[in-house]
TrEMBL record:
Gene3D superfamilies: 1.10.287.130, Histidine kinase-like ATPase, C-terminal domain, PAS domain. The keyword Thylakoid does not apply. Its EC number is 2.7.13.3. It catalyses: ATP + protein L-histidine = ADP + protein N-phospho-L-histidine. Keywords: ATP-binding, Kinase, Membrane, Nucleotide-binding, Phosphoprotein, Transferase, Transmembrane, Transmembrane helix. InterPro entries: HATPase_C_sf, HATPase_dom, His_kinase_dom, HisK_dim/P_dom, HisK_dim/P_sf, PAS, PAS-like_dom_sf, PAS_fold_3. It is an enzyme of class 2 (transferase). The chain crosses the membrane at residues 12-32, 187-211. PROSITE patterns: HIS_KIN. SUPFAM superfamilies: ATPase domain of HSP90 chaperone/DNA topoisomerase II/histidine kinase, Homodimeric domain of signal transducing histidine kinase, PYP-like sensor domain (PAS domain). The keyword ATP-binding applies. This is histidine kinase. It comes from the Bacteria.
Amino acid sequence: MDFKRVYTSSKTYIILLVVGLALLLFMASMSYRQIMRMQQAADMVAHTLKVYNILSDLSAHYTQADSEVFREKLVDKDSFETVLRAYKSEGANIIESLRVSTQESVSQQSRINSLKVLLNTLYDQLYLLPASGFEGNTEDALQYRHAQAGKINATLYQIRSINKSMLSEEEYLMELRQAKYLSHKHLAPATSLVLAFFALFITFVSFLRIYRNKLRIRQSEGFLKSVLATTDNIVNYYEPIYDAEGSIIDFKIVFANACNRDYLGLDPDEVMDKPLSEVHALYKMNGELDALIACCQDQTKTNFSQQVDVNDEAMWFHVFVTPLATGALVTSRNTTADEKSKKEQFALKQRLEDQNLKLLDNRALLSNIFKSISHVVMHFLSIRDENGEIVDFEILFVNDRIYPITGDNPDDLKNKLVSKAFPTISETVIFNHLVNAIERNKAVEYLVPYTKNGREHWFQCTAIKLGDGVTVTSREVTEEKQKEAQLLSLNDELAVQNSILSDAERIAKIGCFLWYIEKGKVEISDNFYSILGYDVKEFNMTLEKYREFIHYEDLSLYDDRLKEIMETNVHEEHMYRIITKTGEIKHLRTNSQDVIKNGERIMVGVVQDVTENIETEEILRVKNRELLRSNAELESFNRVSSHDLQEPLRKIRLFISRIQDKEGDNFSSTGTEYFNKVKNSVERMQALIDNLLSYSQIDSSQEDFEQLDLNEVLEKVEEDLTARINEVDAKINSDKLPVIEGLVFQMEQLFTNLISNAIKYRDAAETPIIHITYEKIEATKIVEPFIKTHKYYHKLSFIDNGIGFDPEYAEKIFEVFQRLHQKNEYSGTGIGLAICKKIIENHNGYIYAVGRESKGATFVVYLPD
């Protein structure tokens, strides 16, 4: 600190000596007493800072015990003794330094005694932390360390409390010494005046005394600078900067110690004499400036916490502001380690809580597993004699599955000896199995018979070492033992089945083969010989031998296919022709796959004589061509007939209209009735021909398919049927419908027919309501029996509340000219639903109906996505 700017320098006395002996004597006397008081104050400040440093060392010392890294070193057997010995030695040095530095304070000495006892307790607790009985990461070890850590944290909490009390007393002493200094400062002028006359007689002696005191001040200043240089705290001195109105607007940094460089990266020489507002690492805008101003104006101490970011790393300081002379002495203690320790402690606590929760979950899961499995699970702890040999076991755990077998309660068996609870184990070879599993650290499996209610049960047991015990898992294999006996009888039946398989191959005209690729060996079934026209085992089959049977026209295709299989290992069904021993040409279909047996690649396959199928398919193709030609002629005839019938119908309708206009008034009631029946029959014949023509015009061509929005189709149909809808006050509700690939006019006809049907077959007592629902459904989830060529389908359901129909006629209603009602009950031609079915089939979809009499009907349509 630049004391020349804070205190009166010795140059003042030399100047006063030149100016006048009288003034010099006065000032010399005054300066002498002032310097003496300042020296005492400086000594006391240095002493207090020294105590602060020792307390800081104490804080760092006990904080280290809370460090996870330090505890990991203690857990390490290799470094445990060395680390703990050095740690105890460090604590003893700190206590001794505190005892010497505070020997004048009885209360501090008492606290030091308590600290010493608590530190010894802490060392004992740290010594017990890596107890050998709880090594590793077992559940007991984790619980023990967690409990020991709790004791250590409680001891650390008491040490922190005493440390804070000692710091508070030192701060109180600092306040008393400051007050004493101020009182001496006010008494100095009066005392100097009284002693001025006496100083005239001892001028020379006083001058020498002042000079010697100046040297002592320099020594004290050097000592104080040394203390400030070695302290772990940032110590700065600020003098206020006033504006024109006398208000403090800033502070000038008069002194800054080297800790500014260590903590904040600020060079003390560069920041001194600068305004505080220009040094951003020291100047914060969250109330610190107001605290400094209040300290200088009110001459009161204050303290606050401050966080500073240095090189993107957060640091915490606890700042003490003390008024000193005309400025403020600012001491910043680095509390970063404490803050980090708190965070680490909190994080450790959180991790422990999480681990405890996981442990509880794992225990609950394990408990549920033991309850749900059908196996009996037991864990035995070894009991050894003085020679270390296992003589018995203690039962530590048995799950609930033991009760149905032996009738024992698992809780009653815990902590019992195996020799008492299960004497058969100790008396049989089972005991040796358990011992071998532990001593050899190898799982042991064995069978155990158990007789219950006169019936013999068998259990497959597995013994696995766990610690110095063994976990035994037992499952009942009685049924497996019985099946093993059954297997022997099944082997006898296998020969019979092989004979049946040979007959099945012969009937299905199938042959089997095995080709050992690496050995070049080929085995074929008996019926394969028959397909080739040979007796069984008449020759030895090889790949080269089989090529001789391949038809010469198919030989290159056969070789290429065989080469592709060998190179790509991709097997696909293929066909070729062979020439048998008798010269007969046969068509064979073959398929195969690779298997690996004992590290050897083997091709396994079947061949089927499909000669008759090929001939049948050829006949079928001819028939199909004839059917296509017949259908084309039929459609042509249908269209021609439909058009040709239009002409006489138009003439009949024309003459009916003329007769009605001219002679209608002369008809009798019977004649009028007959005439109306003729007229209705003609109109029905006209509708029938129109529908028949529409039906014949629906083909399966998809060349004109386009993207169409079914919502727009529904709007168009509702517009066309407005009159009929309004006539019966029908309600049509619809989900949002999809966009599909299709023909617009056919979709319009589909919607028109289905909605018209719902209106036509309405219940006279109810308002017709038609619901059109939609959902997109995966093909695999559709249970209706039709060929599904797409992954997804649009499902449209037309649901009405009409008269419905008998479920017996659900398929009949889609046939041409099929009606469920008399024509005098409901009008129609019986072609409408047949047209709907043909439209849906043309769009590669499916339609079906569901209904019940008087319960309404539902028409479900599937259209591909």
